[in-house]
Amino acid sequence: MGKRREALEVVLRKQSELVQADAERLPHLVAETFIQALGVPHVHVYTFADEHALECSAAVGCAESSVRPAVRFAVGEAHSLLGRVAAARRPLYVPDTQGEPHWPAAECEGRSAFLVPVAFDDRLFGVVALVTDVPDGIAAPLRALALRVSRYVGGAVEVARLLIELRQANVQLQPAYEQFAAQERLAALGQMASGIVHDFNNVLTPIRGYAELLLTRPNAAGNPDQVRSFAEEIYKAACDAAEMVARLRAFYRPREAEEQLTPLDLNALVEDALRLSEPRWRAEAQRRGTSIQVVCQLSPLPEVGGLEAELRQALLNLIFNAVDAMPDGGRLTIGTRSTPASASRPTVAFGRTPAAFVCVEVSDTGAGMDEPTLRRCVEPFYSTKGDRGTGLGLASVYGTARRHDGQLEIESAPGRGTSVRLYLPTVQAAPLAKVPTSEGGAVAPRRIVVVDDEAGVRAFLAIALRLDGHRVVEARDAEEALALLTAAAADLLITDHGMPGMHGLELARRVKERWPHLPVILCTGYSSHLTIDVPLAHIDSLLPKPPSLDALRRAVARVLAGR
């Protein structure tokens, strides 16, 4: 009992080494385990050189001259004892090797040997030869113990073999996986890029269209109301584009608590969306020789709390989806109504519990969706339109509903069209001006240096500041700005961040070293990233791009206060 317990303790200690061994070291560890557990003087381990032959892959306790790894022993051949053991999966005891005609000296020197197969289930790892220098040197109890040790070792070797194969498979699959992942990333980026292009084209249409009207119809300038109307449409579309850029960094992010909601007239937004989308549902349909009838059913509504640009874009997406679903023409119905809060529309975030919701419903008489499509229609990049679709329309509307603590319901069936209902809570919030005015933010005229490598941005900032009475000097890069500041004193520096050569933060650092009391405004499209990751010790204010006239005036007034 003592010998058996000691042998099993050795095996248990060696198991962790066996399991973690690589293919080259594993046979040697098997030999070590047998020799330490059983105390025999010599152990040879024979493993498969190929599918049909064994060769010596490790030897412990043997003279180096007695190991001949180049010799191979065919499995199953009558003249090879090792081949017989491997074929039959049964142990074989040779009391005296000198009296055994099938024991060639090339196999293993010694006077007695016990050949033990090491296997797990039907998988044979190899054959272990326990060898002594005297005849009949391996007694029956030791042979029985050797069989028990071989079973434990066989299990550990099988685990090691599986891990070795897994590591080898990982190495072989890694290039293919990396190539597949790269292709998937490129495909996703391509789909996202096409979706961004689609949405930006929708936003740019009124900007370009109304600007062309102003340029090609000079007589419109004689009608101030019409000019102002065109300018308001251009301004709202530009704000939508700026909001779209801000939302690209987090497609499904939840709304942050500090984002301010504006009281909105949802009916007015619906009318805006119908007017902006009219070229799509009227002109394009007529060019195809079809007709889309638009039915607008608006009910009196309480105001909803929302982000105007985001909700307008969501309505446009719903209208465009409905139009795309009716290539041969049909009827598009858009309506609004109030609806009480219910269990299906639970308490919304930030502690607000609305008494009611408002609903905007967009319906079409198109082909409709089957059940599998309906289940996936709000997944990003899932589209049934082929090359014409991006799979971002309904997904972005769903994201908008979530960010407004609302809900999106979609009802559709093949041949029965589709109805999409967007529910929004009636939550009040502090009002924000929709169109900029010339009031507020005025300060005494100062000398201001404006730095931006983009001529259009630089020109806008300079013109806006000059209209407020400031003396503006323009610089195309940081080096030119430093030269201007050295030549004449200034009251304020407004600099872009991302410029070739010296960037805005480095310029601000150098300016503060030489003119520590000169205020610096950093104008950047990455303001949220900078406030988190970059120390802004040299910046007095951040001005997000694209800057509004009101934001520019407020930033200038804030940093110049008291100067």
Write up this protein:
This protein has 14 helices and 18 strands. Mean pLDDT is 77; it is low at 64-68, 249-258, 343-353, 386-391, 428-435 and 527-535. Helices cover 45% and strands 20% of the residues. α6 (266-287) packs parallel to α7 (308-324). The termini are far apart. The strands form four sheets. It has a six-stranded antiparallel β-sheet, sandwiched between helices. It has a five-stranded mixed β-sheet with strand order 8-10-11-13-12. The protein has a five-stranded parallel β-sheet with strand order 15-14-16-17-18, sandwiched between helices. The longest helix has 77 residues, at 140-216. The radius of gyration is 40 Å and the shape is elongated. With 563 residues, the chain is of the alpha/beta class. β1 and β2 form a beta hairpin.
Can I get a quick summary?
45% of the residues lie in helices and 20% in strands. The protein has helices spanning 2-20, 26-38, 81-88, 140-216, 224-248, 266-287, 308-324, 371-376, 393-403, 455-467, 478-487, 504-514, 527-533, 549-560, and strands spanning 42-50, 53-60, 72-74, 92-94, 112-120, 123-132, 262-264, 292-297, 304-306, 330-340, 356-364, 407-412, 418-425, 447-451, 471-475, 492-496, 520-524, 541-544. The protein is elongated.
